Here is the input.
Amino acid sequence: MVVAYSNATMSNSAASNIVSLGQTAEKSNATSDWNSFYTALTSGSVKVGISNPVADPGGLRGWLVLEAAGYLYSGGNQSAYSSLLLKAQGNVTGTSSAALVAPLQSGQIQFLLIYKSAAISDGIGYVSLDEHVNLSNASLAGYYSMFSYTDSAGKTSGAPIVLVVTVPMSSANTAEALEFVQYLVRNMGSLSAYGLVIPKTALLYSSLSSASGLPQPIQALLSQGLLVQKGPV
Amino acid sequence: MNWLRLISIASLLLLLVPVFVLLYYGLGPFRDAAGFSTQVFRSIELTLFSSALAVVADFILFTPLAYYLARGNDRITESLVDIPVSVPHPIIGVALLILDSPVTPTGQFLLSLHINFYNTILGLVTALVIMSAPIYVKSMQPYFESKDPSSEEFAMGMGASRLKTLYSIVLPNSYDGLSSASLIAMSRALSEFGSISIIAFYVLQFPFYGVSPASVTIYEFFSGNMSGGLNAAVSASAAMILVAIPITLAGHMIRKRNGR
Amino acid sequence: MIELNVRVEVGEFRLSAELQGNGTICLAGKNGTGKTTLLRAIAGLLPVAEGFVKVGGADVTDSSVEERDVVLVTPSTCFPRLSVDSHIMWGARLKGLRPEKEYLLKVKSELGIDYGGTVGSLSRGMRQRVALATALLSSPRAILVDEAFLGLNDREAFVSTYSKHAKEAGVDVVFSSQDEADGKLADYLFVLNNGLATARQRKTSS
Here is the structure.
């Protein structure tokens, strides 16, 4: 996750100020710098887009990012920044973070919590967040689970953001889809251009007791060592 | 056997099938409490409120245009009036977004006047005005045309300008045409979706903080972005229909009553 | 003084008229001969294809209806929601004139207007009287009466009283009629025949 901004954002003086605070904090990674950044961001002087958590996991993760940041930079107070933002009514919601990109570009909102890969592919600027906050590091899973978001859909705990692909067995073009999965696994390095963290080997999640139940192309990847079974679904 | 009447009624029923289906399932088999929740009723309130405001704005801003077209011969202007409804409605929403954007000269100007369209009641009403004004004009223009112009000519002969004639002589005698056109424009505004889903997906102002217009709420139920799913969408639709139908019918009854 | 020499075209119909006169002018002709067309042209409601119209000494050929100061009264002209008194005063008020209360009462009584209430509730004949009174009090250059003298029960007396008041106020009156004999009620008589106007002599003064 990153805090994205657009050219329109920079023409807003309060917002461009916040961007500089963010860039300072990126370099120093000092707690006080990050605290200044998040405090200004959630002060209500600018509009921050976080999509609807019930509709979009991206929105849920946006709120989790604020929780993690509060814990790390505001003396252990998880809700420091999120409650500030809510009280100041500085948050703007939408169906999905993608739906909020247009308002970001036209300047109706100044910042947007969104996936790094989306920010890169949409060509908008962003402030990179510390890995303890941005939900990117798989080995920090336990740390992330300290934070949670509760709503009508229930309680969701923080977890690393993992992109998975699956092929529904009832789909029309299963063979071609599995070929694509093979292609993806063989060429996943190219996805690093979009800010994705690529594991050394692709990981398989399967609840089957033995590999022989898997589709043939998947078994092939396993035997070629391009795929490693990680655990159940 | 009056075949014309039979065929006419049959085709009308065909047109109304979706409405009947929604009413039946929404109030019956698919009935879901979420469809009749506070959230839905607040949405319907917002839609009614903003549509009513839009119609008032239509009356103030566009009645002169309808009169001008009725008493003049300006074919070009007449066809331009239809443009907003000839384009896909989201385009109007996008246009308002750009108009209001701080990176455009128009947006900077509007910003200096503290005018903001995004997620505001003003933006919502503006979009509704753009979408409902054409049908308001299309309704008032033939009404004005059907009025005997001799009293207007009488007033003008005594020195009244066209505008003065409109306000002093024509409008006080046009209550039936005005109510009918207003109700028709109101039903148009109530049913709007495309433009407002972009410019005012929800409204962030008192007293409707966080409320979406009804059409957006129903869409969100249906597309799974609001928990409730299909049943909630159908129930909310039924609720909306029960509100919208009386208004539409009233509009047309008033027309009929004057033999128009 | 009304002076005109016009060619007016309405669809296929061609009207040619030349006339000059002041005081009360009667425009007579059968149906379809162009009386209404000519009156509307004088009022500015129809464009003149060729020629000129002069009213009260001013050339109004290119003036708009509002500027021309010529009022056209027809059997259906009225403002139904106004009370009789506000109706009659409407034109005068618009111009900022303030006729004396006595004058208003005098006009009303001489024109036989003795009802109150809203004009819309009056009989047709009464509405026509009110419209004519309204035109008179608005002090125009000329009043054109298109069939609005019809259906009044004491028509001849009414026309002569009305003409008298108009003359006192310096307002020319042109009225249309299907009967040439109505020429006796006017100072000038013009007869229209198939879109062509022919003058008749001035009535011997009285």
Remarks:
- The helical segments of chain C are 35-43, 65-68, 84-95, 101-110, 124-137, 155-169.
- Chain C has a mean pLDDT of 88.
- Residues 72 and 144 of chain C are 5 Å apart (CA to CA).
